[in-house]
DUF3231 family protein (Paraliobacillus quinghaiensis), 334 residues
Amino acid sequence: MDKEDIKLTSSEIGTLWGQYINGTAVDTVNKYMVSIIEDEKIKALFEEAISIFDKQKQQIVSFLEKDGFPIPIGFTDYDLNKGTKRLFSDIFCVHYLHIMTLHGLLGHTTSLSSSVRKDLRYFYDSCDTDGKKMYHQTTDLLLEKGHLQRDPYFFPEANPEFVQGQKFTDGFFGEKRPLAATEIVALSLNMKKKILGKALSIGFSQVTQSKEIREFLKSAQKTSDEQIQSLGKILHEDNLPIPISWETEVNTSQEAPFSDKLMLYHIGFLLQAAQSYHGAGLASAMRADLVIAYEKIILKNITVTKDWFNLMTKNKWLEQPPLAPNRKDIAKDK
């Protein structure tokens, strides 16, 4: 059967829909950032990112239209207030692009693994290639600017070691063993993403026009800070460096560069995406205090995400993804 005659599966439709919604949100932020960035090298990266997504967006639209599915509204220039004052520094902007590229890489890989149709697999493979290139570019630029903090260094052991008894998992009673390298991977990633979420919450809370949304953003900021402190304490107790914060890279502007819809959605996206990293951290944790820390974070984020969902639906801002046919309702209507 020709690939043009093979319909998209529900999973393939879901990945395309998600890529469009999340992609247009980040693209709108990128368009604002490229308008305020002064550093030519950073600006060039954002121009490239915008150009890449424009091509990806056209392809997503083509896939959906050919199967008769409506194109999501997502986010557009209506969610961008041009000509507003600078809210973020150039360095914050490149950190933002770096972290969102990491999210994009995970999204492309998940979408690829959920796709069967050949043209769709090749599309996500090209998206992954573009994402990896952007990751290298943002990493190199942050290193060049002296703004990329490396994770802790370890000293090599003389020989491989094996776990000796239950003491390896103890994190409450007696002397704790040092953190494992496999545990630090998750701690580092989770903290860096929470640092971004906190900084965005601070900036968005300064400029939102809604008191209700401002209170939610302040709450999200407080939650991020508490979780950064919780994970940072674990690193600190092992005399390991804690990732630096980016609050000072947020300016004092009170002019909103984005719609309240986009700002609220963006924080919700980060909350939801974080849960997969929390799960990975929980799965890699072999010390009891780490397990408890991740469980508390996951449960707290569920509560915060529920508040976010209620605000989004109250304002009629949350687009509904394609649903499976409701056979009971179809039968009733006959």
The two ends are 34 Å apart (CA to CA). The domain at 176-314 is CATH 1.20.1260.10 (Ferritin). The first helix runs from residue 10 to 36. Residues 79 and 128 are 27 Å apart (CA to CA).
